[in-house]
Design a protein that fits this description.
- This protein is an alpha/beta fold and 118 residues long.
- The chain has one domain.
- It has helices at residues 15-25, 50-61, 94-109, and strands at residues 5-7, 30-32, 36-39, 66-72, 75-81, 84-88, 114-117.
- The protein has a 7-stranded mixed sheet with strand order 1-2-3-4-5-6-7.
- Strand 6, helix 3 and strand 7 (114-117) form a beta-alpha-beta unit.
- Helix 1 packs across helix 3.
């Protein structure tokens, strides 16, 4: 059974953000009190629209599919497939922008490159 990180909030620069970053890089399930979560795809597309929605659906339908998704509330903001990490560059809210920053920073600190859905 995989470890689920129950992270109390996402205080910037604090221990909780470090645990969240670790969970993202290792693609482990986690849930913060602030609406950021990661794990297996739920099938929900949340607020994704246009080319973002298409890219997500195409990845879900692809042979390899999506193995791991990071959600800001119910909206996928990053996902991992056979092709690697994809990060959405679409504005949803101030909170989602902060959540995206946590993902981008986690990948950058680990030296992991990613593509952007633009």
């Amino acid at each position: 059974m995989s470890t689920v990180y129950a992270v109390k909030g996402d205080r910037h620069g604090g221990r909780h953000v470090l645990n969240t970053r670790d969970a993202i890089v290792k693609r482990r399930a986690f849930q913060t009190a602030g609406g950021l979560s990661g794990g297996k795809p739920t099938g929900e597309a949340g607020k994704l629209r246009g080319e973002y929605f298409e890219a997500y659906c195409n990845a879900v339908e692809a042979g390899g599919g999506i193995y791991y998704v990071v959600y800001s509330y119910k909206t996928p903001i990053a996902w991992f497939t056979d092709a690697g990490w994809m990060v959405v560059d679409q504005w949803f809210s101030t909170t989602s922008t902060a959540h995206r920053s946590v993902v981008v920073n986690a990948l950058a600190v680990a030296g992991i490159s990613y593509g952007e859905v633009i």
